[in-house]
Amino acid sequence: MDRVATVDTVKGLREAVASWRGAGERVALVPTMGALHVGHLSLVERARALADRVVVSIFVNPTQFAPNEDFSKYPRTLDDDRAKLAGLAELAYTPLVEEMYPPGFATTVSLAGPAAAGLEDAFRPTHFAGVATVVAKLLLQALPDVAVFGEKDYQQLKVIARMARDLDLTAEIIGAPTVREADGLALSSRNRYLSDEERALAPTLHRTLQDGAARLRAGEDAGAVVTAGEDALAAAGFAVDYLALRDAETLAPVSDLAAPARLLVAARLGATRLIDNIAV
Ligand code: AMP
To answer: Which ranges of the chain have pLDDT less than 50?
Structure first.
């Protein structure tokens, strides 16, 4: 089976990208942690439409996992990933942890402002510093014209867009829509952790968001909608971390639809934590 060409050093990545840019070609980067599914591949297709050359990074970034999270058991399927990217991307960038964080590494992006406040940050307080630092490094290593991120991780997308503006990173940050299973469950590398029973319950997350968005659009009070949604999720067996209405751009808390808003949720089914969001 064909495999996408792969480099695992910053030097190899820079040489490939420099030769393309030298030829006047536009380069897109799609950062991932691998275990690629159709959602990831939709980002690659979006990148294809925006650039001449597409680089997909595959790096399970230890610094965005808390000690109690699933870093060591996070799925690693590099050979499959390389086969899936054959013909879709020009290059996979697969650095080892030591390439990304050489001995003595001591610098971290620190985030301020509403995009990084609350929601995921309330439950994973070291997560976004890890994400922002590794994405800043990837953007500086690859120097792409454009980088594509999924709306599936909506807060992450907004944190990264803010960071890129604030640090004058030159890549244009593009968000792409969430790819779902037929029953509405957002594709995620973590869905494979769900038992059959949990998998059957999981689509309730998306249905709750759809129902909440419909009620909000019909003029129902945001507090009442959130309470009803939390109750519906709890009744289906979820432990809810948050269900919240936020400004779609800044992610500041809002209680009405005066500006475009986003309804975001994180909830646990057994040991698996699922997140999703919907435009309102
Ligand atoms: P991950 O490998 O989970 O870090 O995700 C890599 C990128 O793929 C991120 O920008 C995610 O938002 C995006 N992504 C993950 N799941 C989906 C999905 N179901 N639809 C679209 N994009 C996704």
So the answer is: none
